[in-house]
Amino acid sequence: MCVGRTRGLSYVLRRKATALVRRSRHIRRVLWILVAWGVAAYVLAPWAWERYASRHPRFSDVPGVTTTADRHPGDPLNVAIVGTEEDLVRSMVAAGWVPADPITFRGSVRIAVDSLLERPDDNAPVSNLYLFGRKQDLAFEKPVGDSPRKRHHVRFWKSDKTEDDRPIWLGAATFDERVGLSHTTGEVTHHIGPDVDAERNLIAHDLEAASRTERAYDVSGFHKVRSGRNGGGDEWRTDGNLAVLVLRPLSTQADDAIHGAENQAVGR
């Protein structure tokens, strides 16, 4: 009888011990979860948001659309470049784009004549658009065929924003479909195609193909209004995103060129 009671008591004690061990493991698991949550919520998340804010500046205070000289709506902004002016100029040229001439009366006549005669003009002028109260700082174009009627082009304005202590240039990239008279001013001008996202993507592709881009990201929801008309009366539409392209510094590009030349020399 005593032996049976002892076995029964031993069994009960083992059950209780097993239950205590399981409960202890469960408590430790819960504690680890709480610790992990605390670290993620109060350490990692604030750090990540701080890094995001410092590396991905907000563009909420940037106008989404440029203006003409008489304050009509111009072309929409759709691309931003991070880099110095020299980085930007050299990278665009390396990607197959050429600087555009400033617009003048003589330049407007040249556009009209070249268009009629189907005469190529790689540096055909672009009209002035305005952002931050001034006309574009830089402009580039990429001809299509032998006539200046059609071309890809982009205007850039240097902003007061920086990323990694490098200036940010805001750009409006569009495709000129034809030459005609402005619907609002009557001046000789190019009329743009509506798909401004395609031009944004073309610049990103060309810079990447030329190995000039260090990294890229999109600012979604940059445009709250996703369609409109520019000062020439041309319709445009967008998905609302702003492409931000961070250029490789010239020093890095030069180092790569040197290493490439050395590798070719060794290969020979």
Tally of domains: 2
* Quaternary structure state of the chains depicted: single chain
Helix coverage percent of residues? Answer: 40-55%
Query: Beta-sheet strand percentage?
Result: 25-35%
Radius of gyration from the CA trace? 30 Å
Provide the succession of SSEs.
HEEEHEHEEEEEEHEEEEH
Q: What characteristic shape results from the CA principal axes?
A: elongated
Which structural class do you get from the secondary structure elements? Answer: alpha+beta
In whole angstroms, how far apart are the ends?
Answer: 97 Å
Please tally the β strands and state the result: 14
Question: What is the tally of helical segments?
Answer: 5
Estimate the mean pLDDT confidence. Answer: 79
Short recap of the structure:
With 268 residues, this protein is an alpha+beta fold. The chain has 5 helices and 14 strands. Helices cover 40% and strands 28% of the residues.
